[in-house]
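Quick start: what a row looks like.
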Amino acid sequence: MTVRDTLFIDGEWRSPHSRVTIDVVSPSTEKVIGTVPDADDADVDSAVSAASAAFGGGTWRGLPISERARILELALQALEPKVADIADLVTA
């Protein structure tokens, strides 16, 4: 079973304000396959503020297309070794 205890907000993994968790249930087996934090209002506000700041004043939209493509290629390279794990997770 996969257990996550942090939320990814503003480019970093953070402990949630709440200790409440949500069970992740496989639709094919109806068994619990993991748990994740249940973000509370403060967590959601932090995430929305970070997204709003990134959209409005972030550097991404000012980057040339060639630089965006380079960054996306690096992301792809980082994900490629994990393709089987990602496929298993999506399937579950």
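That is the whole record. The radius of gyration is 17 Å. The mean pLDDT is 93.
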